[in-house]
Specification:
Elements (H helix, E strand, L loop, with lengths): L4 E7 L5 H12 L4 E7 L1 H10 L4 H8 L2 E3 L17 E7 L1 H8 L6 H11 L3 E6 L6 H12 L3 E2 L13 H15 L17
Parallel strand pairs: 1-2, 1-4, 2-3, 4-5, 5-6
Length: 194
Amino acid sequence: MSERHGVIVGISGASGAAIGVRIVERLAENPHCAVHLVISPAAERTLAEEVGPEALPRLRALAFRDHAVSDIGASIASGSFPVGGMIVAPCSIRTLSAVAFGQLDNLLVRAADVQLKERRRLVLLVRESPLHLGHLRAMVQATEIGAIIAPPLPAFYLKPQSLAEIVDQIACRAINLLNLPDIAAPALKWHGDR
């Protein structure tokens, strides 16, 4: 077995908390992956409201390490700590803007900034609609400094049969954007595949 890849999963307070949960579940199933989890206070509330009161303790149990969002001195706040990349799912506009413009006031944003400065993959599942020009400019800024903006949009061409299938498809797509072969999510089947 090869060495385990550390992957940071940040969950911020935007709607779509189930996507972050599914990403952590998928990564935790993989023996090649060690999940480092950072959850914002707003995300704790969203998790409870959208997924249920058991979501937060379950996520913390699945993670290799659960980091307090206030712990700015955590290992993942340093570029010398080796990880394969980071996914923020869902990514609120507040978190997007903080990443885009270097406002590093908590561990979630600091860890994201470290990925950018170390030229590692940072995938932001920005969850907002409609978008105004300020949102779009923050997305452009984040892209220009190296982030991958991946709004959590369903792949309707896969003909999903349930909300769970849609969430899983989005989670797998985000994981695969990290481009880490040992932790690639399963390939999604097109409706004509057998």
